[in-house]
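Write out the bound-state structure for calcium ion.
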Amino acid sequence: MADTLLIVEDDPQIRRVTEIALQTAGFDTEVAGDGAEGLAKAKSGRFSLIVLDIGLPEMDGLTVCRTLRKSDDTPVVFLTAKQDEVDRVLGLELGADDYIGKPFSPRELVARVKTILRRVAPPEPEGNRVRGNLHIDPATHSVTFGGQPVTVTSREMALLDILSKRPEQVFSKSQLIDGVYGVGFHIADRTLDSHIRNLRQKLSAVGCSDGIETLHGVGVRMGACVGAA
Ligand code: CA
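---
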């Protein structure tokens, strides 16, 4: 089945050009003409990727992305019209997967989209793993601690997957970024930090206060996951 992409762009001409380019490349598309509509559609989780203009009336693309990221990590490619928008994308650790400056060629957009979709394709699932009272099953996207379910995003699952495969190993930030996002992909350390922080909070909320251990200046490894303070 073809990937369905969401295009959020207020300029009808750019929206149409983008739509045609992506459809010609074999994708299904849906469109939204403003940020609120885009966010509502994006939250449905039906999309493999979102092409998101930054300069939107009322709710801008950065706000859409920031809001979406609280519950969802669908890849986002920003469309930027100005250098200061690029700076804001890079500076705000929004978890954007890429950005493309206007004017852009449809071919360039399609190439970027395909690269990201390849990168985020889920790895072959492996069997479930147990660490202390924590059960992780990447195949069914399920995490439980002492039987209590923990709802994680796909990035958080990727992070847990990597850490729990070699629970004694201390992973550097760059190793984790390579593992979660793919080798050669550049994201800010702070973006990774926020995934780790969110995951740790979710684990703590069910009593797993020793889920992830940070060794300052070295990296991160799996904790004992027995629920000790
Ligand atoms: Ca615009």
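---
The pocket of calcium ion is lined by residues 10-11, 53, 55-56 (CB under 6 Å).
The chain has two domains: 4-120, 129-222.
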